[in-house]
Design goal:
The complex is a heterodimer of chains A (258) and B (437). Chain A has helices at residues 39-54, 78-90, 129-139, 146-151, 164-176, 181-199, 219-229, 242-249; strands at 4-11, 15-22, 27-34, 60-64, 74-75, 94-99, 104-109, 115-120, 209-212, 233-235. Chain A has 258 residues and is α/β, with parallel strands linked by helices. Chain A is globular and about 60 Å long. In chain B, the strands form 2 sheets. Chain B has a 4-stranded parallel beta sheet with strand order 2-1-3-4, with helices on both faces. A 4-stranded parallel beta sheet of chain B has the order 6-5-7-8, with helices on both faces. The chains are: A alpha/beta (258), B alpha/beta (437).
């Protein structure tokens, strides 16, 4: 892996992502694992692997809720790193919807990749990847084929609860009342998308909507979000790695690549 | 009665000042290592402020039975009560002291156990909880003979004071200020003037003496002068660097809230103003290091976390140079004319920010932002003060769009730390600061 210039670490609530980029910001190497509660050890191991492949010391940028526990790294918040990562990957300004395991953020990115404004879900995991994970687990709906399941649903069954715990019991009663499973799952996506759309309220009409985070891998969610916002949504390449790439870009020597 | 009066006067004039001086002497002798902080050394006036508030609350313990006592909302036209010789207690100010001391969860638990909702204003829960548990950082509050409530700050105070009236079985005077869209109409002012006249009648009856209208004018003059002096103190922060932080303002606000209309209040602000001007002339700022960014704060303080928030920001060179909250008292009696206290008072107290429409608040935010040359704003979305928080998302968008100011909406509660998530807040504040680089 010659040409590696920086390492980025994104310690999220669900997964730990480590990447290596070259001087132009191109992704050279990656590691993605479920987050271990012993963050320091996990990060040390993953960064060690990437360093070994690169064959030399590299500057490390860290983000995510565990960023301060990454030794020797420059720590920046997820907001800044996601903005930088998304800007580098999209190549222009826009509005980023990042849906992670424990938080969802909407970030307006300016013409130089700077953060113009941001909004986040507050103190509650409803509206995040964890919400879907908990409820789909309860319904025993596998992640594979989810997009097809939702696309095939004739109508969404409304799920009114805005709290993960209450939604779980609501969904169980819907199943008990013989509501169709695909309709319930679609209803969940609609509920989630409407929460995110509320955060994205006021986004200027000209802004392109970009999407990142692990939830962007769920095609059903992307489609629901597109519908809730009534505009196109562009999923960034390797959406789960956007924050880690942004963290790596922040320690890249010289001006940030565009 | 006479003995009680002697105790009250002794507490106000001798024992209180003596204890305050003793405490100052002790503080000076105690060699405490300086706390690691991004702030300049505290203002010298802070000691006088502490002494003044201590004497106020100490004398209050002996006020009931000695002089008439009124419990008053922060926006009530207090000048009439002051002239009639009332000792005034501000439950909101007392609640804020409970907030700073972080005893609100215990007080709130007590009232929640009786069925009061946690969604109620945390000031209300603090004060009712203090009444129920007998816990207070100031010892005790004197029992009221009169409750004086003005709805210019919110409608909650009406229900809060009705509750108090039932508990204490004393008269409640209410000034209902119609919400002002645009400018106040003559009939609205007339409506408030009529209520002021009625309030005077009740207050006279409880105090067992008539209102001396000349003395009333003099109190109004003092009140207006106090507001003006407070405004001048705030204005010193237009200088770069600002000689103090907006958070200092939250604490130095005490006298203009609780002792407005007294010479002691005004004397205090003259001293403070001199010190601030002196700091400006010597180029001393509120932060130890460089003042890199100047911020505006909107809404009540987060009383239990002000230091946490400002330390985080201050350590990166961000200073609050103005707040809509402290500014409200610079405007509280600024329109009152001592020659026509009733009508001008009605207009002045009806036109405080919280009783006016959103375009007015936007104009205020824009004016403060320009005059204090801020490049960022933190809007505290206060869980238990909805009248203050409503419209903040629009205000935030307008500040960003029209003035290019970076903004942060910070979710918290002014007095209940159970609504505060330290890590989440630090993350948002961190991202906000990073957006300036």
């Amino acid at each position: 892996m010659s040409g590696a210039a920086a390492i980025g670490v994104d310690v999220g609530s669900t997964t730990c992502k480590v990447v290596a980029i070259d001087g132009t910001g191109a992704l050279l190497d990656r590691r993605v694992e479920p987050t271990d509660p012993r963050i320091e050890r996990q990060v040390e191991r993953l960064v060690g692997e990437i360093r070994a492949t690169a064959g030399r010391e590299l500057p490390v940028g860290a983000t995510g809720y565990g960023r301060k526990r990454v030794a020797g790294a420059r720590a920046l918040t997820e907001i800044t790193c996601h903005a930088r990562g998304a800007f580098a990957r999209a190549g222009r300004a826009g509005t980023l919807v990042d849906m992670g395991g424990q938080d969802t953020k909407v970030i307006r990115i300016g013409p130089s990749g700077e953060v113009l404004d941001f909004a986040m879900n507050d103190k509650c995991a409803a509206g995040t990847g964890r919400f879907l994970e908990v409820i789909l687990g309860r319904l025993q709906v596998p992640f594979e084929g989810l997009a097809e399941l939702v696309a095939g649903a004739s109508r969404p069954v409304p799920v009114s609860s805005t709290c993960t715990v209450f939604a779980e019991s609501e969904v169980i009663s819907l199943v008990a009342s013989d509501e169709p499973l695909d309709g319930i799952v679609k209803g969940l996506h609609v509920a989630l998308a409407s929460r995110v759309a509320a955060l994205a309220r006021g986004v200027p009409a000209g802004d392109e909507i970009l999407m990142s985070g692990g939830v962007a891998l769920n095609g059903a969610m992307v489609a629901s979000l597109r519908e809730a916002l009534s505009r196109p949504v562009r999923v960034l390449p390797d959406p789960q790695l956007t924050g880690a790439v942004g963290a790596a870009l922040s320690v890249l020597p010289g001006p940030a690549p565009r | 009665m006479i003995l009680r009066r002697v105790q009250y006067e002794a507490a106000a004039r001798a024992v209180g000042p003596f204890l305050a001086a003793l405490d100052d002497w002790r503080q000076r002798r105690r060699k405490r290592p300086a706390r690691e902080s991004p702030f300049a050394p505290p203002l010298e006036s802070l000691r006088a402020l502490k002494d003044m508030m201590m004497v106020h609350y100490l004398s209050g313990r002996y006020a009931d039975g000695a002089v008439p006592v009124a419990w008053v909302t922060s926006g009530f036209p207090v000048e009439m009560l002051r002239t009639l010789g009332y000792h005034t207690v501000y439950p909101e100010n007392h609640a804020a002291i409970c907030g700073v001391q972080r005893i609100v969860p215990a007080l709130s638990d007590a009232v929640e156990a009786q069925g009061y909702s946690r969604d109620l204003c945390s000031y209300v829960r603090s004060d009712l909880g203090s009444l129920d548990t007998g816990r207070s950082p100031v010892g005790r509050l004197p029992r009221p003979d009169l409750l004086a409530c003005c709805t210019n700050i919110c409608q909650t105070v009406l229900y809060w004071y009705r509750d108090l009236a039932r508990r204490f079985d004393v008269p409640l005077v209410l000034i209902d200020t119609p919400f002002i869209y645009g400018e106040p109409a003559p009939h609205q002012t007339r409506y408030v003037v009529d209520q002021l006249e009625e309030a005077i009648v009740v207050s006279e009856r409880v105090a067992k003496r008539p209102l001396d209208r000349e003395a009333f004018s003099e109190t109004v003059r003092l009140s207006r002068e106090g507001s003006d002096l407070w405004g001048q103190c705030l204005d010193t922060a237009r200088n770069r660097p600002a000689p103090w932080t907006g958070v200092d303002g939250f604490f130095h606000l005490g006298p203009v809230v609780a002792l407005r209309g007294t010479e002691a209040c005004n004397a205090y602000y003259r001293t403070l103003l001199d010190e601030l001007k002196d700091r400006v002339s010597r180029g001393i700022g509120g932060l130890k290091g460089e003042e890199r960014h100047r911020l505006l704060w909107d809404n009540l303080p987060v009383w239990y976390a002000t230091r946490e928030i400002t330390t985080l920001l201050g350590s990166q060179g961000f200073n609050f140079v103005c707040t809509t909250y402290t500014n409200a008292w610079a405007e509280a009696s600024s329109l009152i004319d001592p020659a026509n206290p009733m009508e001008s008072g009605a207009r002045s107290y009806s036109q405080i920010m919280l009783n006016r429409d959103l375009p007015n608040k936007l104009r205020l935010l824009e004016r403060l932002s320009r005059e204090f040359a801020v490049d960022g704003a933190v809007l505290h979305s206060d869980r238990s003060c909805k009248p203050y928080s409503i419209g903040q998302i629009d205000l935030k968008d307008r500040l960003a769009r029209d003035l290019g100011i970076r903004t942060l909406l910070l979710e918290a509660d002014h007095n209940d730390p159970r609504s505060w998530a330290s890590e989440l807040a630090a993350n948002r504040i961190g991202a906000f600061m990073e957006s300036f680089s």
